[in-house]
TrEMBL record:
Chain positions covered by the region annotation Disordered: 346-391, 420-439
Residues that hold ATP according to the record: K34
Cofactor names: Mg(2+)
SUPFAM superfamilies, A to Z: Protein kinase-like (PK-like)
Catalytic activity as recorded in UniProt: L-threonyl-[protein] + ATP = O-phospho-L-threonyl-[protein] + ADP + H(+); L-seryl-[protein] + ATP = O-phospho-L-seryl-[protein] + ADP + H(+)
Pfam families assigned: Pkinase
Descriptive protein name: Protein kinase domain-containing protein
Amino acid sequence: MERYRVIKEVGAGTYGNVWQAVNKENGELVAIKKMKKKFYSWEECINLREVQCLRKLKHPNIVKLMEVIKEQDVLCFVFEYMECSLYEFTKGRDVPFTEYEIRKLCFQAFQALAYVHQQGYFHRDLKPENLLISKDVIKVADFGLVRDFTSKPPFTEYVSTRWYRAPEVLLHSPIYGPPIDMWDMGAIMAELFNHQPLFPGVTEADEIDKICSVIGSPCQNSWADGLCLANKMKFYFPHYPRIHLSRLIPSASDHALSLISWLCSWDPNRRPTAVQALQHPFFQPCYYIPPSLRMRATGIYKAPPTNEMKEAFKHRSSCIYCEGHLANGKPANNFSSTTGYNCSRKDDTHKKLDMHRSQDRSMGESFEQNKPLRPWHRPLATKESGHLGDSNANWNLYKKLPVVSSDRVAELAKRLENLTCDSSSQPTRPPPPSSKVGTWNSRGAYGSLSYKIPPTGGFARKILG
């Protein structure tokens, strides 16, 4: 403790007091928690659940344990310093929180809880005093009542402050788990909107009465296990109808009310996990990624077509696929549309990117639907003069064809029979000129035509990154 200089006391709790101090070596501010209980061995200090838990948990939204010091049977924990607790932060505000601020704070808290539960622990003492804030960053603190999933019941009856205590704990259930943390978060969220607790009970019985007056009395369908716990205690739930939370929290949106109602469910098995809470629509804006960052993450940049590009695309299509014949009189090369451009990544990070691609695909599909048919795909024209569908015009074309007599055909067939082919007498044919991929090589009107097949994916784009 010689390396730290104590400045002032910043908090007091059931198990110890918290002091603000500064490191004499580097000037770093720290928070020192001095335990009230005496510890006579170092093994006893190391085996504390709080020490074991914080040595294992490493998360940006969990307060960092920097050092454990034991001097003269006094145990001290050195934590990173946070400016204030959520309770002090709320108390010092003259204006209520906006939903954006509540979403930002709760999103961080649920991320920390999801990590804690994933590591096999549940907090058991979540309340505004144990959520610390510093520069818009919230961190979960005070793991003195933490338990792991492997702990054998029965658990202690006293957990958390009464206003945030889950119903199963109020009814002295010997078995409970992470859902009690979810109930705490529901009560904390409601308090952030109203700046007052949602269930301000004076006693445990009054606390249950306050809960029933808000979410309605439990029944066999909503919480059968709770009725059994109440019967064992000879406790009778008061009869209240369920009221809509919008009457108590008018400033909250529908998504916020939906999440609070889900968190504050009678049955622990019907409450969401921390991961499910993070997937609620209330936190959907927290997952928005700006387009510039999305493009950097994927290594692909595909901007939506501008108006000039669309006009040029329409002009090009009108020139290539015109009515009746091609504009340049030559076979048009096929071109790849945007529908052939697909990205294999389909995770949540690239949904916005996929939305940009869908716009290009929809533009290409609309063009394919509205473009005129090519001449060789056109149906027979109506019987108008000069069209192929006109029978008189077809007959006139037929009459212009040269007529060959049967004697002439027989003479030609006889000549073909007498023809002989000597490979040695034929001159060596020069090799055809080299051609680029996708071009035609012609050698006279009656010579053979060679076509070099383009490789597969000739129109594939090269993707950088």
